[in-house]
Amino acid sequence: MTDNSAKKKPGGLGRGLNALISGSYDRKETPSTPNAVNTIADIALTQIETNPFQPRTHFDQTALEELAESIRVQGIIQPITVRQLSADAYQLISGERRFQAAKLAGLEAIPAYIRKADDQQMLEMALIENIQRENLNAIEIALSYQRLLTECSLKQEELGDRVGKKRTTVTNYLRLLKLPPDIQIGIRDNLISMGHARAIINMEDVEMQLEVYRKIVNEELSVRKVEELVRKINQENKKPDPQTKLNLHPLENEVKRVESRLSTYFGTRIQVKSTAEGKGEIKIPFVSVDDLNRILEILNYA
């Protein structure tokens, strides 16, 4: 019985939402004037064009078909949001998954909240609406943040306020866009997590980043294992500062010459240790009391 009613009223709202909005908005048929804003109306799908500012680049087809099946049974529970371009033309602001699923479900019309918005507002609303959805992958979030910064002329502090995130969180997402394309695709396709990516990005060498990425995928490494691996690789590849190396090189050679001369003089292996600041120590080992007395006699003699 529910199925039949859904088919008779393909764009029907759920009863709960209908009751919720009945006191706030007037539900109308498709408006005949371009000024019918702040209303919810059933709009023909053929009159709605997709959002050119849509930040989502990847829709899971299986999830989309599951949503379409739910719509066939329950109808559209939450209206999409559109702006009116003319008397019979609209553009999506948010709700593209519901829009696409409604098409798959065979609906002819869909409930939509109509509001005014210029291009910049369209972009900002679409981006923020998508960012707030839990199923958006990390790369889509990062790209959305980047577009808000560049195309909406927001600063990172303002962006954090708009999306309800700390600035450090925003920065961590933006850093993902510095990774090679193959790794970004891996994040998008859930082959690796945000935690894996944050560990990889601490490596400067792109080839090494890709090598670690492949190792994560092939061996199913945990984030902690990757952090340890990256730390080890960075330590092994850490190069001394050229200036420091230049300053220490002559001193190291002199220390070795002193060690050699003292070892010959005392007849035992002498160790001389020195720091970059010129401090250090001399170690004179002995193997017995007689050997110690021998060394002391040499010292007294000296």
UniProtKB/TrEMBL annotation:
NCBIfam families: parB_part
Protein family (similarity comment): Belongs to the ParB family.
Alphabetized UniProt keyword annotations: Chromosome partition, DNA-binding
Superkingdom, natural source: Bacteria
Name recorded for this polypeptide: ParB/RepB/Spo0J family partition protein
PANTHER family given in the database record: CHROMOSOME-PARTITIONING PROTEIN PARB-RELATED
Residues of the ParB-like N-terminal domain: 41-131
CDD domains: SPO0J_N
Keyword Ubl conjugation: no
Record carries keyword DNA-binding: yes
